[in-house]
Design a protein that fits this description.
This is TonB C-terminal domain-containing protein. The protein has nine helices and six strands. With 267 residues, it is of the alpha/beta class. The longest helix is centred in the middle third of the chain and has 25 residues. The two termini are 35 Å apart.
Length: 267
Amino acid sequence: MNKPFITFFLLLFILPTISFSQTLDDLSRRDKKKIDKTFKAYATQDFDSARKLMNKCLQSDDLKDLSQVQLLDAHIYFAERDMNKAKEAYLKTLESAPIGSPLTNIAQIGISRSVERIMREKDFDANKLPKVKKDSIAKKKTTIDTSLTTVPFAIIERVPVYPGCDANQTNLELKACMQDAVSAHVSNEFDTDIATLTGILGKISIRVQFKIDDTGKVVDVHAKSINPILEEEAIRVVSSITQMQPGEQKGVPVSVVYALPIIFYVE
């Protein structure tokens, strides 16, 4: 069953004026060219090329130990969804960055997001259903659990009521009202300047999933994107959504699973 998605479009027109190589003044012209090409490939979301170029950068003794290079290496791994290698590269950045450098904060966010993504993958694998032999299926009676405590937004009998929405409206009207309210909240609260910290251009998507629990609070917020800074900001904003009247199934308050894609355009 497909979950409903709200599309939140935030148009950003940002032209980065400082290239990656301009922060590495002591490098040779050849090494500057290498890292600048790598950053441009990453910025345009050509992550395959960025990885090949980064591997060449790491062969240079003058580049491999620089915290800026290690951070870009980590960002590329993160975009490639190799969270174990991303975590290792963020740790290297944290160890090599000067005390007080803004790189340390970004590296810490990267480590936190990488670990969370790794743990989520482990939980997903652990919850996969075991294979069942065909001849054993006929021997078991099929039962349906009617005591659901978590229900997808698409099938909830009574959706959560967002403050300001009319509780006397139909379920369809309440769904629309809540979707509009959540989109407006994200649009107003999301820090658009966060995009300048990533250096990424073009279309950027952040997939967010969360629960509205049986008391109406937003909990269990998860995000996926190509950069940990974007994930962190999405989680911050969604976690700040106000408490609402909980959803109900058969007259009983239940948790409701909700999915929200946030889409950026950066030029």
